[in-house]
């Protein structure tokens, strides 16, 4: 499948691996792909994000992804659902970090020497890549571009879609911008 990726899509995948390595993550996650997309310039996905006001909220997205990692990958919706059951995720994170240090619930390893070889892709990250392929095929595109990865992230449940939606970027707004359905503004 990787041979069908454009240069920009390949750069997103390699950028996601680099984000995972820098963070000491055991696997490449969907969030790493979003971070790699946010790093891109001059690509279809970066154009779409800029058209939706991306320059204004880029750092806010990064902070929201960091906060979700601190919660052990729980989305805000999941944390709210647990709060409805009387479970305070913020309190749990605080207690764990008090004992084990900041970021202990993120799954990242502080001792990075344990790792040898390549980072594997989590089930969610693989699902994003598979969805990107399906989106490209459905649109009759010959290659998988970084815009397909962005659409796949926005169109599946999870932290990246939630963070993007909080900034007015949804599958629908991205489709309008990428397919020429008019200007879409982030809300």
From TrEMBL:
PROSITE patterns: CLP_R. Keywords: Repeat. SUPFAM superfamilies: Double Clp-N motif. This is Peptidase. The keyword Repeat applies. It holds the Pfam family Clp_N. Residues 2-187 form the Clp R domain.
């Amino acid at each position: 499948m990787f041979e069908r990726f454009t240069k920009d899509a390949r750069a997103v995948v390699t950028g996601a691996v680099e984000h995972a390595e820098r963070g000491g993550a055991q696997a490449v996650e969907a969030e790493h792909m979003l971070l790699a997309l946010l790093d891109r310039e001059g690509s279809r996905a970066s154009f779409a994000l800029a058209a939706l006001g991306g320059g204004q909220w880029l750092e806010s997205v990064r902070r929201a992804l960091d906060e979700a990692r601190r919660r052990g990958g729980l989305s805000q919706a999941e944390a709210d659902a647990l709060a409805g059951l009387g479970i305070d995720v913020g309190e749990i994170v605080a207690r764990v970090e008090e004992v084990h240090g900041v970021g202990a619930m993120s799954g990242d390893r502080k001792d990075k020497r344990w790792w040898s070889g390549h980072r594997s892709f989590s089930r969610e990250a693989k699902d994003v890549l598979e969805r990107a392929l399906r989106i490209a095929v459905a649109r009759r595109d010959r290659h998988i571009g970084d815009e397909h990865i962005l659409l796949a992230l926005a169109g599946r449940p999870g932290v990246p879609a939630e963070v993007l939606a909080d900034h007015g970027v949804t599958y629908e707004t991205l489709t309008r911008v990428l397919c020429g359905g008019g200007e879409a503004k982030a809300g």
